[in-house]
Amino acid sequence: MVLRKLRRYIRLLLCSCVVIFLVIFLLLNNHLPQQAPTSGHGTSTRIKHLQSRSTSPFCSQFNETMLNLDHENFPNCRPKMEWMRDNWETHACYSELGVDGSECSSFVYLSQIEQHCPPAFPSHSNIPPASVIQSRKLEELLLLLSDSDVNYNFIKSRITRLFPKWIQGINELQNSIPNLWNRPRLNLILYLGFLSHETGLKFGEKSTTGGPLGEMVQWADLITSVFILGHNVSISSEWNSFKTKADEYENQGPCPRLDGKQVDLIFTDIMGLRRIKRKKKNFFTSNKCKFRMLDSFGTHAEFNSNAYFKAHSSQIGGKNAWGGHELALQQFLTMYPHTDDNTFLGFVVETYDFHETVARENITVVYGKEKYMWKDSEPILQIAANYTQIHATVADSDEIMPAFH
Ligand SMILES: *[C@@H]1O[C@H](CO)[C@@H](O)[C@H](O)[C@H]1NC(C)=O
Ligand SMILES: *[C@@H]1O[C@H](CO)[C@@H](O)[C@H](O)[C@H]1NC(C)=O
Ligand SMILES: *[C@@H]1O[C@H](CO)[C@@H](O)[C@H](O)[C@H]1NC(C)=O
Ligand SMILES: *[C@@H]1O[C@H](CO)[C@@H](O)[C@H](O)[C@H]1NC(C)=O
Questions:
Q1: Which of 1, 5, 29, 232 has its CA at a distance of 20 to 30 angstroms from the CA of residue 246?
Q2: Which segments constitute the Glycosyltransferase family 18 catalytic domain (predicted)?
Q3: Looking at the CA of 184, which ligand is closest?
Q4: Is residue 351 included in any domain, yes or no?
Q5: pLDDT digits (tens, 9 = 90+) for 235-250
Q6: Ligand in nearest proximity to the CA of 404
Q7: Could you tell me if 12 and 337 are in contact, meaning their C-beta atoms sit under 8 angstroms apart?
Q8: Which residue's alpha carbon is at the smallest distance from atom 2 of ligand 2?
Q9: Contact of 235 with 144, CB cutoff 8 Å
Q10: How much is the pTM?
Q11: How far apart, in Å, are the Cα atoms of 178 and each of 127, 131, 171, 173?
């Protein structure tokens, strides 16, 4: 047990660029059960393909024994086929995509468009989806961070400083994963909700004066990784720019869009999620399984579930300000490995080669990022101050803080 914990902390401490690349690489490849394993391009190619094959020889030579509704890798095939039998007319999009009420047309639709059934046309079953586009230009990445002048100061400076190490990291990774560049290019939307001016937190502005940086570090490294891994990345820190981007992917019907355009994953934080749930409910419900939450401290099961929390609130605390979103626990990306239920998403720790011996001094660092957190702390600080100097950063204090020497 102790060993396991220790290992986790070591993992936390030793995050080099290549480790973070690997974590994010695996994260993007790791689909939750409900998630459609398609990329925008892949679907679009398949739809064109299907339309051109709508009077395909497949259905004219159709023989029910050819259809495998019980393939072990496609557990939803039979139930979906049964649903289509009675419901294919509930929305016009099914017939626009070639369904005409026949078994065969439903099967072709479910196999080619929704991937719930095994491939109908064996020779075309593996249409390669559009591949990632490599980019190693810092300028291109910085251009993506453009919907605010103040929000990204810290993130940009971290990205710029670490960029050469990221390039070194990706070179290392591609040596160990040869087909690294042969994967679908995902459409990713990143919404840094905690920076939005509507939250009133001014995290962006405070980043140079002692404001909280943990979230910024985690975001900066995620942004760099998904960009260098070659995905189609769109980044917003303000609500309006997020909304415009999300609207582009709005889908009115239950089928994939005819142009094949779809968002693959949405990265946001709890504040971003709350706003999305309030202001774009449909977008949230139709993409619920595609959300990935940057959640530095993580979310435990008992806080995630509303019913459980209500039933036990007297034992575990009165309010559930950050929880209750009822996502799959692995959708929460934490940088503190408190629980294995969440997904680990750390950040790069910079290491330096020291050649001189560093003389240690007695210094106490106090973590108290805002003034209110220091309330009633004086007696304790007094004790520490009798032995050491005390250092701290406080984001919102305009007064001179008491000097403890
Ligand atoms: C369907 O295909 C199977 C196997 O190829 C064959 O035995 C059967 O006679 C066919 N049925 C019809 C109705 O063509
Ligand atoms: C890439 O993302 C942008 C912004 O979300 C979107 O407008 C564009 O259509 C995407 N490209 C593809 C090929 O889907
Ligand atoms: C730090 O403080 C402790 C306790 O007062 C003392 O024993 C130690 O010598 C100090 N170390 C230095 C480097 O000042
Ligand atoms: C700090 O040290 C002084 C004397 O060196 C002592 O009088 C005082 O009680 C100490 N304060 C605390 C809080 O330990």
A1: 29
A2: 93-399
A3: 2
A4: no
A5: 999 999 999 999 998 8
A6: 4
A7: yes
A8: 232
A9: yes
A10: 0.75
A11: 21, 14, 11, 8
